[in-house]
Design goal:
By secondary structure, the protein is of the alpha+beta class. It has seven helices and four strands; from the N terminus they run ββαβαααβααα.
């Protein structure tokens, strides 16, 4: 969870156990894809952006090759490498790790509210310089949803990052709130 005040990154925390997480602010600031200052000037005074820190497969392979050459312990998979890199006590170590970020949701308070559709929020975050998943799509019906799932399943092994599967979200935030999680 990244917190921005007046467009400036002020803190970052992990989700932890769902109740409390770890402050990883200094480490998050070393991730090149996380903007320290949002682009433009139409953002709210306070913005919380939730997302995922990840390590792309080619970056993971390069990191492990470098570690192995140096006689150091390698990582088992990109997720462990990303999590371990993010939780380092020394931001200088985190800075050397090839971490990336995808934004998945945003929340705000105050006068400048976000759009009421998830897809529009993702486009807005992208306009502000936050990376969003390039494979996201707004789909009109179940047939298109099932086709998209099959498309991603066919591409899964060739994606540059690991996935558990496809996440579906109801686009309208009021409908999301009504349906629950």
């Amino acid at each position: 969870s990244l917190q921005y005040q007046h467009g400036r990154l002020v803190s970052a925390v992990t989700r932890g156990d769902g109740e409390s997480g770890e402050d990883i602010s200094e480490n998050a600031k070393t991730i090149r894809s996380i903007p320290l200052q949002l682009l433009g000037d139409q953002y709210p005074d306070f913005l919380e952006v939730r997302g995922e820190v990840l390590m792309k497969k080619p970056d993971f392979e390069q990191l492990n090759a470098t570690l192995e050459t140096a006689g150091q312990k390698t990582f088992v998979n990109p997720r462990n490498a990303a999590a371990g890199s993010l939780r380092q006590h020394d931001p200088a170590i985190t800075r050397t790790r090839p971490l990336s970020f995808f934004a998945y949701a945003a929340y705000t308070t105050g006068e400048n509210q976000l759009p009421q559709q998830h897809d529009q929020i993702m486009s807005t975050l992208s306009d502000w310089g936050l990376p969003v998943n390039p494979h996201r799509q707004r789909l009109p019906d179940q047939t298109h949803i099932m086709e998209f799932i099959e498309q991603i399943r066919a591409q899964r092994d060739t994606l540059r990052y690991e996935i558990d599967g496809v996440v579906l979200k109801v686009d309208d935030l009021l409908d999301q709130a009504t349906l629950g999680e």
